[in-house]
TrEMBL record:
This is DoxX family membrane protein. Coiled coil: none annotated. Its main location: membrane. The chain crosses the membrane at residues 21-40, 86-103, 110-127, 139-159. InterPro entries: DoxX (IPR032808). It comes from Hamadaea flava. Keywords: Membrane, Transmembrane, Transmembrane helix. It is a multi-pass membrane protein. It comes from the Bacteria. The keyword Transmembrane applies.
Amino acid sequence: MSQHRLPNEQADQVGSGGFGEAMFAVTRIAIGFIFFWAFLDKLFGLGKATPSEKSWINGGSPTKGYLSSLKGTFADAFTDIAGKAWADWLFMIGLCGIGLALILGIGMRIAAVTGAILLFLMWLTALPISSNPFLDEHLIYAFAIIAIAVTGAGLRYSLAPWWRKLTAKMRWLW
């Protein structure tokens, strides 16, 4: 007989601590690394997606290159914000904050909401999707981070227990 637990009640009591929960932790960290790596690459121009001369610290725009080259359904809406300072700042703060929150397992509610919004917007930029009529990795990542935040699965392998004690009176920060 399994014991029913409320989502996000206690990170150190979620799941059985077995292989499945460890895999949720690995998934959370991996998706977090995707966000955080994109932040680092755009900030410093590490040469993967962003060459050094186009890095943010060298005066480049983290949003201009991608958003200004869109051809899809919502291209006009996104090309209008390409390279705007407010869009660059929001994008970079989002990549860094969401990435670190997922890697560390803290602030999962905010990370899930903001991460899902950012991923949904990135999904919109890809429409129409060439490989599938509807679904791509952006939506899968969004579903995964929402599921982890709602269930708390894998958070025992994070800073969540400490974070929840620290922010006990501000549960919205969990």
